Amino acid sequence: MIAMRLRAFAPLLALAALAACSSDSPSSTGPTTPANGSLVVTVNGLPAGANAAVTVTGPNNFSQTATGSTTLSVAPGSYTVAAAQVTAGTARFNATVTGSPAAVASNATTTVTVAYAAATTPTVVISGSIAANRTLTADTAYVLRGFVYVNSGATLTINAGTRIAGDTTALGSALFVLRGARIVANGTATAPIVFTSQRAPGFRQPGDWGGLVVVGNARNNRTGNIIVEGSDGSVVGANPAGVVYTGGTVDTDNSGTLRYVRVEFAGYATLPDAELNSFTLAAVGSGTTLEYLQSVAGLDDSFEWFGGTVNGRYLVSYESGDDHFDTSEGYRGLNQFLIAFQSGYLVPRAGAGSVSADPQGFEVDGCNGGGCVAPSGANAQSAGRDDGLWTMNVFANFTLVGVGGGQTTPASGGVGMVLRRGTGGHYLNGVVARWPRQAISLRDSTSNNRFVADSLTIRNLYFAENGSQNGGQLFDVASGTLFGTQAAFEARNSAIQVAAGSVTAASLFTALPEVTGLTTAAQFDWTPSANSPIATGGLATFANDPRIAARVGSFITPTTYRGAAAPGGPKWWEGWTNYARN
Predict the structure, then answer these.
(1) What is the CATH number of domain 37-118?
(2) pTM, 2 dp
(3) Per-residue pLDDT tens for 272-306?
(4) Element (H, E) at 449
């Protein structure tokens, strides 16, 4: 009876249980996550190609960077937008942020504006001596006033993108890095370090200021207290006794680093016939680094080495008032990949010095002047013979392009390569083109002695469009004072290839612009053109000539091509070089 009652009540109990379960369930699905909002960051004021430096931070450790205008989908909350200074080329841009912190709500849009504007660059005048370590930075413009000396024991560090002008109200202003001091100037291809005229573009001239002088402690072949030419001139801050560079003893001396550095419109004559050069390298040792250097429109030599052992790579000279590359006094350094270009003869700043009577591509001397002591049985041009201090430099993969025949050449100038006064050395895989007087000249018996003895070697050069003002003469005519005849070079297996008369300098390269339309460095492309004869014919191994191999070591690389650029290779001069006539 009881069991029957329970069975009768079972459906009712089940319904009650269901009702109980239903009463314990929530009445809704709970709170929902708020929808994101939009944070719009608008960036303006930067030049084309420059990236912003914006950082957005917010709740829950949110962090995002932006290089330009952007829209971010973010959770509701408060967001901070910050922007750092941006450098574009040599210009700096500061940012003003409007609308930060920004409150972002669900399904709503909030805008923050980042406005960049060019920063005002402070100017600092540098004069006198730098006696302790000092750093120059790209956010400041510097002016050299008079002769400025980096003293022994001090290091001058110059950051990438820094610009330093020679004071044109203190004529002859120049920077001297003295023996025992160092310069550490590390520019980059996109931010080179530039030494230039204080005057504005369009008004600049060769000789607007002095130049950069580095004095090391390596040996050279002159005796006595010989001073850097022009260092005793009447310039603000100058030492009347001048700067002595002879007497060094350490060929491995380290004067620092110059990398991606330009020197423009330098070369002031502090005394009659005593001009400073764009780059003066006096007894500089092999511990020093020289790479990616350019001289633009200097009144005297673009690069001049007085003895020493420093090596260099990637050297460019556009428009020189005198010689593009000038060595002497027992210089024994190694150099590879060099470019020289001359469109005409420069007009110097009034009172800055006289125009050179003998501007050349290379001008290389053994020894000349006071202190060149003649060893027994020889003359003073052979100074250095007894202690191994002949000029024995190496230049490989050079491209030297002169003005051609359309202009009047100074009386003794217009030669691609002048080798004289007892010099030795090795000249390999070069191109000499468009020099109006002749391509090469071996000037004297003392240099010829080196040539005959194989301590002066010329190998695998290419000559084109030279001698247009000299009846097509490319080599010396045999005489008692000239020794660089074509027959002499052939007898020494020099492998000099002379182009046919129809071959022009312009045809050798991918882009060598007409002078009348030349305005920027970007117009040059020194890569060999398609089917160019200089794309081949290089001295591809040094193993067959032990004298060359021993001299160049591992610093100089043999190449299958001639000239400064490899076919299809990197255009190493791009981006950091400049071209300007004023």
Answers:
(1) 2.60.40
(2) 0.84
(3) 888 899 999 999 999 999 999 999 999 999 999 99
(4) helix 445-452
